[in-house]
Design goal:
Blueprint lengths: L5 E2 L12 E9 L1 H5 L4 H4 L2 E11 L7 E9 L14 E12 L2 E10 L13 E3 L4 E3 L2 E8 L1 H14 L4 E8 H9 L3 H13 L10 H8 L3 H25 L1
Antiparallel strand pairs: 1-3, 2-9, 2-10, 3-4, 3-8, 4-6, 5-6, 7-9, 8-9
Helix pairs in contact: 5-7, 6-7
Length: 241
């Protein structure tokens, strides 16, 4: 039987679009991670980055997630299943990034941290959260009440070395989206789906333009416009730190 998975979308519907969203970053030092129940992970993995969380109806006390993983020297992908709280399911592909081999894989995570947000419907652990030999940075985002509950859960597990908060108005996000035209949106979604933003890219600008039946300059212009909006939005967020 073919399994069906649903990507957990990291957005929330609020009755008031001006209701503030909150992003909190929990930072744990290398020593804090080594002296925790995650130390077992670091015996195999040098760095683990969350790519996506998946949901399958009827799942148990675990969460299915997709990760980008850099292994410790001499370790193999199969050894991930030797970690007591990890269960490797699929190894999608490997690529070299900045001198490191990065493996993209899917696994069941049985660790208690993966269950902290299981009953919190208005906040999530975001992609790009990282756990590794250099420490950990966990990105939590959602409604203030949900993020607060999730932070308390992580504190019960282990007090963070540092907590940083970024306040963001949902209205500003809506304003940015409203400035993206239908054509720009279609081009961006097609580019992202085809792997244009991956490193290395899975599709060239020329191939993408042929796929969309648009000129190369038109596709490049749409993507450039969206990238500029995203860069400006990121700069505003960084200036709040």
């Amino acid at each position: 039987m073919r399994r069906r998975y649903t990507l957990i979308v990291h957005t929330y519907e609020c009755g008031d679009l001006r209701k503030p969203m909150r992003e909190v970053r929990l930072h744990y030092s290398a020593a804090a991670i080594v002296n925790s129940s995650l130390n077992e992970l670091l015996e195999v993995v040098d760095r683990l980055t969350l790519v996506a969380s998946l949901f399958q109806e009827g799942q148990g006390d675990w969460i299915r997630q997709v990760y980008d993983v850099v292994l410790k020297e001499g370790k193999s992908i199969e050894e991930i299943s030797g970690i007591s709280f990890m269960e490797l399911e699929s190894h999608f592909h490997s690529r070299r990034v900045n001198g490191h081999v990065v493996h993209t894989l899917m696994a069941k995570n049985h660790h208690e941290l993966g269950r902290i947000g299981s009953v919190i419907v208005d906040a999530v652990v975001m992609p790009d959260s990282v756990i590794g030999s250099q420490g950990a940075t966990l990105l939590l985002r959602g409604a203030p009440s949900g993020v607060k509950s999730m932070v308390e859960g992580f504190k019960l597990w282990k007090e963070p070395t540092r907590i940083s908060v970024v306040e963001e108005s949902q209205e500003s996000g809506e304003e940015m989206i409203s400035r993206i035209s239908e054509h720009q949106s279609k081009v961006f979604i097609a580019a992202h789906t085809a792997g244009y933003f991956e490193n290395p890219r899975r599709i060239s600008l020329v191939e993408l333009s042929h796929q969309l039946d648009l000129s190369r300059s038109t596709v490049a212009g749409h993507l450039r416009s969206i990238e500029m909006m995203m860069a400006n939005g990121l700069m505003k967020s960084l200036r709040k730190d």
